Amino acid sequence: MIEEPREEFRIGIGTDIHRLVEGRKLMLGGIAVPYSMGLTGHSDGDVVLHAVVDAVLGAAALGDIGTFFPDTDPKWKDADSRQFLLAAKEMLEARHWEVVNVDLTIHAEQPRLEQFKGQMKRVIAGLLGIDFNAVNVKAKTNEGFGEIGEGEAIAATAVALLRKKTRRI
After folding, report:
1. What is the per-residue pLDDT across 37-65, written as a single tens digit (0 to 9) for each?
2. To 5 degrees, how large is the angle CA 163–CA 167–CA 169?
3. Which domains does the chain have, with CATH numbers?
4. Residue 160: how many other CB atoms lie within 10 Å
5. How far is residue 117's CA from residue 62's CA, in Å, rounded to a whole number?
6. Global model pTM greater than 0.70
């Protein structure tokens, strides 16, 4: 009896948080969001893309963003976080994984992000080479609680589902 190859799926989760500061551009989900402050970080501080990178790397059991893009390496100083997601996608492809979908939540008291969610979805889907409708972006406030609620930080949480590409014989 010939056994059919079984599809393999894996899920990963990623989180990130950065403090808001004056004098930096606010990058979220690969786009510049108009705001009076931006996020600290060795790179551009894009917590959304950092969380997605960690989610896809985690699902493939490849470690985390700091493993490949350490904040101790001057090469990544002020780097565009889209580079990180493209590199993570290449790592997945080299191991025959593909992203099925990404679901993410951005935690920010300000700025309001409703009008930017579609652009973020488009960027993330494009970088991962997946359908626009396979990416979901939610924005939540912290109702005034903690560093996020007090407008001092922005955080993101992402979940990614991967599927092992099956080889056809």
Report:
1. 999 999 999 999 999 999 999 999 999 99
2. 150
3. 9-164 (3.30.1330.50)
4. 29
5. 28
6. yes
